[in-house]
Amino acid sequence: MAVTKFSNQPSPTRPNFLAGLLARLLADLPRTVVILLAVALGVGTGLAAVLLPNPLIGFVGVLGLVVAGVMFARPLFTLGGVAVVCCLLPFGTIPVKLGLTFTFLEAALLVLFLVWLLRLAVSNRLQTEGEGLVSSPFDWAILLFIGLSFFCYILNWQTANQTDLIHSYAKLMLAILQFFAVINVVRTQVAVDTLLRVLMLSGSAAGYLGALLTRLPRDLQFTLLSKLSIVGYPTDDRVLRYVEDDPTKPQRATGTSIDPNSFGGLLVLVIALLVTQLVSNKPLLPRWMLGLMLLGPLFSLYLTYSRGSQLGAIAVIAVVALVKYRKIFLYALPFLVAGAIWLPSTFLGARLAAGFALEDQATVLRLAEYQNALDVIGGHPLFGVGFGSIATLNVTVPVSMIYLTIAERMGLIGLFLFLLIMFLFLSYALNRLYRLQSDHQQANLLGLTGGVIGALAVGLLDHYFFNGEFSHMATLLWLFMGLAVVQIRIGEVVPTRELAPGKPG
């Protein structure tokens, strides 16, 4: 980056004195800005406390400005905020309406894009080395997918010209486009490691929170979760969720994710990272800490009674073991034996058996959804029915499978593009796994890739990774893909020496 140099020669003349003073201020800009901001915040907070009817409003507003300033100054902080919000407050909305009700996640992603584009513009203007545009081998497929989605949306505009539907579609596209910001903003091994730690810690906290809430009395659970209404969370009867929506049956863990199935999908991604790090030779956190962090998500995953998520977690662990860490099979053997003895006598065991036998209510409804989806796809095979309301077709969109949902929304062409993107990504990641320079980097990549595989497995029975109403799930999927691409790029250019966790490459 170009650096302006100032002369240190003193001069007795007043103009030169002013120039020197200006030069010193510019040379010490960060400290000056911090002082001015501190003064402005102090004055603003005092005025807010005096002039506003509720002093808390002023303090919250000032705190928001501070956070926004840090987010603009530190893109990595912004991306970490995206991860934390996805895990702990995915449906939180800014308590101020600006025409639309923006979620914290949307605001963080918009700031991320703005910071990235500003950095890109400045680096191009100043010809800054190392700040140019970064791409992946399958950018073209992602852009085609996004372009096709827009075409399908416009093609079926008559069913989607409502503000809430436009907003939902925009949130979904913002989650996908985040991939490009991630691969451009994250450029060092330290940044990758930091973000993975944030994902694991916040995901583990979400798991423990979900498990803890279900252990509390139901009235207390309802009261605590209803307090989140200040940031847009619901307060109706579905704050607490039960198997088949029957309060006489076991309660399902949701944490702050509202829906137990989407909560289970989130836990699958977290478990993919934690399990891989736990068996890695050079984990990002102490092994005892990782073991404790894993217990909360595993217990919460059990309490979600989400069969798709539970099977997805098993698939993730199996893939991680088959690809690199085969000692997982040895560690898992006692648990498999204990599970085979204990599980059949539990409610979950009976629920799994009923699901495989296609007998329980949820499975019957899911099969009906599949048939409806196939009927819709048969009537609109190329470009689907778009992203609007499909009341005239007497079907439910999306259906409880990501692949049928995409085919309904974007036709078989859209489904082909999505599968092509995932095939290109998985081929790229797995083919380059052993080219990385250290076990630490390989564990990072395998955990991220395993998370994507887990999402695709969960997608066989759920649609949340392609649903604007659950945009945090799509955000996590494309965040994992972006970080995996970054890890490959960094791992292939560092020297062949062993790279210790947390050390810059």
Offer a quick outline of the entry.
With 505 residues, the chain is mainly α.
How would you describe this protein?
The protein has about 500 residues and is mainly alpha-helical. Helix content is about 65%, strand content about 0%. It is built from 18 helices and 2 strands. It has a two-stranded antiparallel ribbon. Strand 1 (about 240) and strand 2 form a beta hairpin. Helix 5 packs across helix 7 (about 165-185) and helix 8 (about 190-215) packs across helix 10. The two termini are about 20 Å apart. Mean pLDDT is about 80; it is low at about 1-30 and about 495-505.
Mean pLDDT, all residues: 80
Number of helices: 18
Low-confidence stretches: 1-29, 495-505
- Overall geometry: globular
Roughly what percent helix?
A: 55-70%
Q: Looking at the chains present, what oligomeric state does this protein adopt?
A: single chain
Question: What key phrases describe this protein's structure?
Answer:
disordered C terminus; mainly alpha; two-stranded antiparallel sheet; disordered N terminus; 1% strand; 18 helices; 67% helix
